[in-house]
Amino acid sequence: MATQKRVVLFTAPGCIWCTRAEQFFRKNKIRFKKIDISKDQKAAKDCQRHGCRGVPVILIGSKWICGFNESAVRKELNL
To answer: Residue 68: which domain range?
Structure first.
Protein backbone atom coordinates (compact mmCIF):
# COMPACT_ATOMS: atom_id res chain seq x y z
CA MET A 1 0.00 0.00 0.00
CA ALA A 2 1.28 3.47 -0.86
CA THR A 3 2.19 5.75 2.00
CA GLN A 4 -0.39 8.40 2.71
CA LYS A 5 0.42 12.02 1.94
CA ARG A 6 0.70 14.25 5.00
CA VAL A 7 -2.70 15.77 5.81
CA VAL A 8 -3.23 18.86 7.96
CA LEU A 9 -6.70 20.15 8.81
CA PHE A 10 -6.88 23.80 9.87
CA THR A 11 -10.02 24.46 11.92
CA ALA A 12 -11.72 26.97 14.18
CA PRO A 13 -14.20 26.41 17.03
CA GLY A 14 -17.86 26.05 16.02
CA CYS A 15 -17.09 25.38 12.34
CA ILE A 16 -19.58 22.80 10.98
CA TRP A 17 -17.53 22.19 7.79
CA CYS A 18 -14.43 21.57 9.91
CA THR A 19 -16.37 18.88 11.79
CA ARG A 20 -17.55 17.35 8.50
CA ALA A 21 -13.99 17.27 7.15
CA GLU A 22 -12.80 15.61 10.37
CA GLN A 23 -15.59 13.00 10.16
CA PHE A 24 -14.70 12.34 6.51
CA PHE A 25 -11.04 11.70 7.40
CA ARG A 26 -11.97 9.41 10.31
CA LYS A 27 -14.50 7.47 8.22
CA ASN A 28 -11.91 6.94 5.48
CA LYS A 29 -9.16 6.09 8.00
CA ILE A 30 -7.03 9.06 6.90
CA ARG A 31 -4.44 10.13 9.47
CA PHE A 32 -4.38 13.90 9.90
CA LYS A 33 -3.04 16.62 12.13
CA LYS A 34 -5.58 19.15 13.37
CA ILE A 35 -4.56 22.77 13.98
CA ASP A 36 -6.93 25.31 15.55
CA ILE A 37 -6.11 28.61 13.82
CA SER A 38 -7.78 30.58 16.63
CA LYS A 39 -4.90 29.37 18.85
CA ASP A 40 -2.13 29.43 16.22
CA GLN A 41 -1.54 32.78 14.51
CA LYS A 42 1.26 31.45 12.30
CA ALA A 43 -1.04 28.74 10.93
CA ALA A 44 -3.78 31.32 10.33
CA LYS A 45 -1.32 33.46 8.35
CA ASP A 46 -0.16 30.43 6.33
CA CYS A 47 -3.77 29.75 5.32
CA GLN A 48 -4.31 33.38 4.29
CA ARG A 49 -1.03 33.43 2.36
CA HIS A 50 -2.36 30.55 0.26
CA GLY A 51 -5.55 32.44 -0.57
CA CYS A 52 -7.88 30.86 1.99
CA ARG A 53 -10.19 33.30 3.77
CA GLY A 54 -12.08 30.92 6.06
CA VAL A 55 -11.94 27.42 7.51
CA PRO A 56 -11.60 24.59 7.06
CA VAL A 57 -8.36 24.63 5.14
CA ILE A 58 -6.89 21.27 4.19
CA LEU A 59 -3.23 20.78 3.32
CA ILE A 60 -2.49 17.49 1.56
CA GLY A 61 1.19 17.09 0.76
CA SER A 62 1.92 20.52 -0.73
CA LYS A 63 -1.61 21.19 -2.08
CA TRP A 64 -3.80 23.71 -0.23
CA ILE A 65 -7.58 23.22 -0.42
CA CYS A 66 -9.75 26.10 0.84
CA GLY A 67 -12.98 24.82 2.37
CA PHE A 68 -14.11 21.20 2.56
CA ASN A 69 -14.10 20.24 -1.11
CA GLU A 70 -14.65 16.50 -0.85
CA SER A 71 -13.95 15.75 -4.52
CA ALA A 72 -10.65 17.68 -4.42
CA VAL A 73 -9.68 15.86 -1.21
CA ARG A 74 -10.55 12.46 -2.72
CA LYS A 75 -8.55 13.27 -5.86
CA GLU A 76 -5.51 14.40 -3.89
CA LEU A 77 -5.60 11.27 -1.67
CA ASN A 78 -6.47 8.90 -4.57
CA LEU A 79 -9.64 7.70 -2.82
So the answer is: 7-77
